[in-house]
Amino acid sequence: xxxxxxxxxxxxxxxxxxxxxxxxxxxxxxxxxxxxxxxxxxxxxxxxxxxxxxxxxxxxxxxxxxxxxxxxxxxxxxxxxxxxxxxxxxxxxxxxxxxxxxxxxxxxxxxxxxxxxxxxxxxxxxxxxxxxxxxxxxxxxxxxxxxxxxxxxxxxxxxxxxxxxxxxxxxxxxxxxxxxxxxxxxxxxxxxxxxxxxxxxxxxxxxxxxxxxxxxxxxxxxxxxxxxxxxxxxxxxxxxxxxxxxxxxxxxxxxxxxxxxxxxxxxxxxxxxxxxxxxxxxxxxxxxxxxxxxxxxxxxxxxxxxxxxxxxxxxxxxxxxxxxxxxxxxxxxxxxxxxxxxxxxxxxxxxxxxxxxxxxxxxxxxxxxxxxxxxxxxxxxxxxxxxxxxxxxxxxxxxxxxxxxxxxxxxxxxx
Length: 415
What we know:
20% of the residues lie in helices and 42% in strands. It is of the alpha+beta class. Strands 1, 9, 10, 11, 14, 15, 16, 17, 18, 19 and 20 form an 11-stranded antiparallel sheet that branches. The longest helix has 19 residues, at 160-178.
């Protein structure tokens, strides 16, 4: 079984009810441009999604102008009328490589020297304290079962027809789970007040969730649905305890108690603000420059190797493209850093597990029938420049994937 978790947060978004405008940004070949910045005012704006689309509210647009910018493309300013007259499609021109005009020597810029300058300028470029961030957060989760089987092989006290019936029902359940393609969305809009690395306060304005409850096949729900099926074929007047392998689960189970639990699930849409705060703060922490944050580890030369790749442009400024990969066994990631030539600020980070690298894992297949591997963790962090010339996160996307192998016998013990 594989499970995937994708999280992204778009910071500094102002959502109000007004006339909206949806626009697509493309390159000269009509390919969508993801993660382009669309500035609607001095300190407000949105970014395009992975398909190049963005939606704005016309009331938010200052002076009727949109300022568009994206790494690798020349910046452009357009009016709302320009957008409408072009059928809501905006074309950005590719940035012209000006490396030869800027560097007079024939030597390639030194990647390690650039990283060292990034570290020297951290305190000037990033403000991690006493700030309020407006954000929109989306959590998307889904499960992908490579293979799933459930079968009753022994059943004392169960008649032959009951035995056949439960296995037929379990087979139907497993096929539904495999074919379900269940996706779960959780969105919320709010403010995160950051005092320092430890103290934050979350104010949630609006939170919504979307899940097809009939096809909700999380790991916990798979076990619950299978238990309920088996209990229907057992003596409904008895209460059972579960035993799986060497472990006895002390929670008592009966068909009646399980049905009562289903009826009590009237708070599925309630949100645990503490968990929401933890998710948001965790994502933000990755993009901050305190000691031992994710970003600080990536720009640590003791942990990673760096290589100059190319130069591009953003808002009329040259940007270095620096590739990184693990230097030590405990370093897990590889990816790309985009660093400004003027301020030596990281304005974009793309990362994935390096070759042969994985996250947390344990293998107890022989003892307990369980194997777990965190096999996917990748993401993108984009920073925006503020009015005071410091940088703060504008977009954070993180995708996680985990592989589970579970093969365990389960016994229902009546008492």
